[in-house]
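My current task is to audit a protein record that another person submitted. Please read both lines and tell me whether the tokens look consistent with the sequence. Do not assume that whoever made the record got everything right. I have pasted the whole thing underneath without changing anything:

===
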Amino acid sequence: QYTRIKNPNQITTSYTSEVEGTWVSYPNNDVHFFTRTLFSCHAELKNLSPGEFYQYRVGDDLSGWSKPFVFQAKKPDLGQPRKFIVYGDMGIEPETTSTVDALKAETKNYEYDAIIHAGDMAYELSDTLGAKGDEFMNMIQPFASRVPYMVAQGNHESWEMENTSQYKYRFKMPGNSTNFWYSFNAGKAHFIAFSAEFVIQGKPELQQQQLEFIKNDLKNLDRQKYPWVVMYTHRPIYCSANKTGLLGIPWERHNKDCLHSAPTVRASFEDIFYENKVDLLLFGHVHAYERLGPAYKNSSMGCEEESQNLCVNARASVSIISGMPGQGESYAPVSPTPLPWSKSQNTVKGYGRLTVFNSTHLFWEQVSSQDQKVLDYLWLIK
């Protein structure tokens, strides 16, 4: 049930519209002895007025109703900036507390158009017969109930069937690829989510379908209307390593397979990024923060004009890894041997803020979860 309201802080007791959801059931047998059947319900609210606030609740008269929630319908394109929160690799452990508190505060006034979670959720969504997934969903509810929560598949949502099912059925992204690839527009930006797991897990049929989608999506995109193209997935195409290991053998930053997977992902997608002038690539996977300048074919491409925090007319895609919202696994140290085009690194728990101001100016910030202090920033201009 839902109803349009003028003030998101004034809750009403009456609802003017109702829509029936579609229920999906799926098994979870992560311990391989017991099976728990889980249920997800997806409901589509239609004919919403752009930019207006809606109060809603979930349930029925027989089983009871949830508490009321409020969201803002997608804003009309009137030239205002569009704002997004970005991160990957969020668990449910105490390390996440400061980030969750920060996201509650950030989304309180409905300033953001979406939250982008670039893979690896809960560690694992399927654990304890899916109870950990339930806990994760409850944890993100305060902000995911009011701001679109846009996800991409990570390796922790792909390596076992029950993990993939959890990812497919707990979320509902645009399109019909069960959340593997999709796109959407916001202001002057076009966003494309995709999966880097198919080339790692050896699923050529899915990878071919995905490549066809990405190529057709970019081919048919009106770059006059949407001059900025932002793509996101879990595994980076570049990451700095530590080359100070035992007996000179490189000690690879956690996640330990980044150096091995990056060339494979790069070989599968980088030509598409370069040929279609994709502006910004957002990743997780490495449990640290790193911003890399424009690069192609394992070489720096630079910008027409640049400094530490400025890039004017990038000659290739800029890559950002933001994998530090908090999780129970180990964290990557700052690499003492960064790639030549690595611009910034840190290991402070935090998340990214992306603002698309207009057709020419895009702004990135990595901020501390503890105090929202800006740790790094970039002006991307064209």
Notes: The chain has a mean pLDDT of 94. The CA atoms of residues 276 and 319 lie 15 Å apart. The chain has six helices and 26 strands. Helices lie at 97-106, 131-144, 161-170, 197-201, 204-219, 258-275.
